[in-house]
Amino acid sequence: MKRWCTDLWEGFWTVLIGMKVTWRHLFTRSVTLQYPDVKWQLPPRTRMRLFMKYEDCIGCGQCVRACPVSCIYLKAEKRPTTEPAIFAANGQPIKLDVHVFDIDMSLCCYCNLCTYPCPTDCIYMTPEYEFATTDLTHHLYHFAKNDAKFLTVNPKAAAAPPKPAPPAPPAAPAPGAPPTPPPASPAGA
């Protein structure tokens, strides 16, 4: 009988200890969020999924050379000189046709080294981090497209020199001031 009472008391005491911890955390501030309804605000310069704006890519391949894991695939050819000139958003002429620009995010190590050498800033890290899939082939992103709309006018073209400002009209005399004589006309006029 004594053993039964001891076991009963230990069971009850254990529940009280557990409830003490529960009650202590019940009135503290929550550190969890109800994901995906609520999301953390990511810090600046967060490195997540890569994106490339195809219309601004000049096909230089510097991002490919900078990638330490070789997850960027680029194929470009020289544009024919007979085609009209096209430009990136920063005014740099695009002299290569980019036929393939793929990024395999399953290989990417999120180092962000590919974005720094880009002369047109067309490749960058986005804050998008919800791209989990069950198939690794879904992480291969194809950015080259056939229906891209390129700029045919250089947005950074030199602006026309400004026209000289017209001469300012003479100032009105102050009230009470003697009238100013009209300017002398040239002789013989």
Write the layout of secondary structure elements.
Elements: H1 2-26, E1 50-52, H2 62-66, E2 72-78, E3 96-104, E4 123-125, E5 140-142
Describe the protein's architecture and organization:
The chain is an alpha+beta fold and 189 residues long. Helices cover 16% and strands 13% of the residues. The chain has helices at 2-26, 62-66, and strands at 50-52, 72-78, 96-104, 123-125, 140-142. The strands form two sheets. The protein has a three-stranded antiparallel sheet, with no helix packed on it. A two-stranded antiparallel sheet has the order 1-4. The radius of gyration is 35 Å and the shape is flat. The model has no long low-confidence stretch (mean pLDDT 86).
Please provide a brief summary of the model.
By secondary structure, the protein is of the alpha+beta class. It has helices spanning 2-26, 62-66, and strands at 50-52, 72-78, 96-104, 123-125, 140-142.
Instruction: Report the strand count.
Output: 5
Q: What is the 3D shape?
A: flat
Q: Going across the major beta sheet, what is the strand order?
A: 2-3-5
Largest sheet: 3 strands, antiparallel
Instruction: Please give the count of helices.
Output: 2
